[in-house]
Amino acid sequence: MNRIEDRELDNIIGGDTISGTVINAFANIIELLLDAGRRVGSAIRRVSEGNLCPLE
């Protein structure tokens, strides 16, 4: 194994990492989309069944 000098260490580019913050953001987006889908589906079902609260 060859010894690497300090000036050569500056040229090394590491791999890709995904931080916990990015994973948490994706999870929150997925949760938001699922919740929105449930609400829209529930609204469609209530309209089709005529089960709406009166506005008066």
List keywords for this structure.
56 residues, mainly alpha
Can you put this structure into words, describing what you see?
With 56 residues, the chain is mainly α. Helices cover 61% and strands 0% of the residues. The mean pLDDT is 88.
CA radius of gyration is 26 Å
Helix- and strand-based class? mainly alpha
Uncertain parts:
none
The N- to C-terminal Cα distance equals: 81 Å
Percent of residues in beta strands? under 5%
Shape type: rod-shaped
Number of helices: 2
Helix percent reads 55-70%
* Major sheet description: none
**What's the mean pLDDT score?**
88
| Number of strand elements | 0
What pattern of helices and strands is seen along the backbone? HH
Summarize the structure.
The protein has helices at residues 6-9, 20-49. It has 56 residues and is mainly alpha-helical.
